Amino acid sequence: DAAYEGSLPAAGVHVSDVVGMAATPDGKGYWLVASDGGVFAFGDAAYHGSLPADGVHVADVVGMAAAPGGTGYWLVGADGGVFAFGGAGYFGSAPGAGAHVADVRAIVAASSGDGYWLAGADGGIFAFGAAGYEGSLPGIGVHVSDVVGLAGMP
């Protein structure tokens, strides 16, 4: 029952590098994010800002996650850098924690909204804020290089 709430081509916006999407809690809207951190809001999704609007120039954003309640969102770069907008709190990032990674692929919010997890291409998990660390693929001896997403448990 996902409803169409709009698209970039329908809005006359030409972007060829959308890398992530997050839905509003009621499912009546969504955000899209491009690799430069540009955020586009559709339906009842409120726009809370973007990296280009803040004068931040990057080309490696790889995903986004909505804050519970739709009050904001997080963007994540391939290096594990996290950017918080609106009511999404900032709880740290991989570079800030001294982790040197170049292949983060996804971000997921903790159900409380007080933290988030990052996933690397190798299945490595980085937990921030109230998001508890429960392990990772490298930690149990599983060797992969092609993880592309992450999902949280309520």
Task: Write structural notes for this entry.
The protein has 154 residues and is mainly β. It is 0% helix and 33% strand. The protein is built from no helices and nine strands. It has strands at residues 18-23, 29-34, 39-43, 61-66, 72-77, 82-86, 104-109, 115-120, 125-129.
Summarize the biggest pleated sheet.
Answer: 3 strands, antiparallel
Order of helices and strands: EEEEEEEEE
What's the Cα radius of gyration? 15 Å
Count of individual helical segments: 0
Output the strand order for the largest sheet.
Answer: 1-2-3
Query: Percent of residues in helical segments?
Result: under 10%
DSSP strand count: 9
Give the overall pLDDT as a whole number.
93
The end-to-end distance, rounded to whole angstroms, is: 21 Å
Low-confidence stretches: none
Determine the strand fraction and express it as a percent band: 25-35%
Shape: globular
Structural class: mainly beta
Short description:
The chain is mostly beta strands and 154 residues long.
Topology:
Elements: E1 18-23, E2 29-34, E3 39-43, E4 61-66, E5 72-77, E6 82-86, E7 104-109, E8 115-120, E9 125-129
Antiparallel strand pairs: 1-2, 2-3, 4-5, 5-6, 7-8, 8-9
Structural key phrases:
single chain; about 150 residues; mainly beta; three-stranded antiparallel beta sheet; 9 strands; about 0% helix
